[in-house]
Amino acid sequence: MQASLSISLQQCSKTFADGTRALEPINLEIHAGETIVLLGPSGCGKTTTLRMIAGQEQPDKGGKILFDGVDVTSVPIEKRNVGMVFQSYALFPNMTVAENIGYGLKIRKMPASESKLRIAEMLAMMQIEKLADRQISQLSGGQCQRVALARAIAVRPRALLLDEPLTALDAKLRDSLRLEINGLLRQLKITAVYVTHDQTEAMALGDRIVVMEHGRIAQIGSPRDIYQRPANRFVADFIGVMNRLNGNIRDGIFYCNAGHLHWHQSDAATRSILFRPEDIKITETHEQSTLHGIVNTAVFMGDRTRILVDVGEAQPLVIDSHSRYDFKAGDRVGLNIDFRGIITL
Ligand code: ATP
């Protein structure tokens, strides 16, 4: 594998010919060897960003893309030496698995003996040795995606760009292939840019996640940063489940419809507090609590019970309880929020 590549996007915006503004000017530094995930709702500009890195789209005038500090903005895709993997696999149906994997090597005129070794190495890496002579039409979705990965990696690209590679697969296969891709990216130490709208996938794969909204970067951070310290309301609501209590602070106490809690933080202007389902405890004995609610729904999920609790807000609170107590709709319950999990935005 070649030494890992750093990628820099500087003031890259994109306006399509029909006037669609897909990206506002974005700046993004992708470090050598890291896996960066572009995450966001449909139409936020993830694929456009990836295609600009690949060289399939040009940024608007003034935008620049650098590979290891060298301006490649006008370098065409075939000279950028990046590997690409798509949701649709994009394999050649009239070639065998081995021929697909060897395609890029042939284009690069690699001697046959060397190419044969490389193909064998890729087949072994993706654990598809037995499929070498199969036609693409005889493969399952998961096998197709392994071949597509092997084909992308065979040419030893400087970076690997993946656009929703697991979206077409069923949930179980997606989980196992995600683990495999994670292992592969760590093993290869290759710079990877991975596009998804699936936050679980983003959390599992990304060294850092770039959350995008309407052609802008809403936040860049580690999965933990993004989940525990969202920079704004959009990120807070887009990633995972977020609870909200609206109220106000008087004399060091936060008052809301559910009751009150002592406020130790310096931010006295807070009008609402946010927290995750795992950062609130529910108790059947409610006398000790300063916050209360009425159980709306309780769904037993085996390892936990997901409980919706009405607290006089527009939305009920979502709470994950590990208690053995069988909460029922209509129960009046006490609520204790873990202060460490409180986010104010
Ligand atoms: P998805 O998850 O649905 O693939 P995305 O975040 O990858 O979405 P993009 O494909 O980057 O989003 O598209 C961003 C915006 O640019 C969208 O509004 C899309 O309709 C628009 N767009 C993409 N390609 C073109 C094009 N060739 N011409 C005009 N508009 C385009």
Number of strands: 19
Outline? elongated
Radius of gyration: 25 Å
Major β-sheet, in short? 6 strands, mixed
List the bound ligands.
adenosine-5'-triphosphate
Q: Look at the structure and give the mean pLDDT.
A: 92
Count of individual domains: 2
* Content-based structural category: alpha+beta
Question: Would you write up a description of this structure?
Answer:
- With 345 residues, the protein is an alpha+beta fold.
- The chain has 2 domains: 7-238, P-loop containing nucleotide triphosphate hydrolases (Rossmann fold); 243-341, OB fold (Dihydrolipoamide Acetyltransferase, E2P).
- The chain has helices spanning 46-54, 77-80, 97-107, 112-125, 141-154, 171-188, 199-205, 223-228, 233-238; strands spanning 7-15, 21-30, 35-39, 64-67, 70-71, 82-86, 159-163, 191-196, 208-213, 216-221, 243-250, 253-256, 259-262, 272-275, 280-283, 291-300, 305-310, 317-321, 332-337.
- A 6-stranded mixed beta sheet has the order 6-7-8-3-9-10, with helices on both faces.
- Helix 6 links the parallel strand 7 and strand 8 (191-196).
- Helix 3 (97-107) runs parallel beside helix 5.
- The longest helix is centred in the middle third of the chain and has 18 residues, at 171-188.
- The chain starts with 6 loop residues before the first strand and ends in an 8-residue tail after the last strand.
- The model has no long low-confidence stretch (mean pLDDT 92).
- Bound molecules: adenosine-5'-triphosphate (ATP).
- Adenosine-5'-triphosphate is lined by residues 16, 18, 20, 22, 40, 42-48, 197.
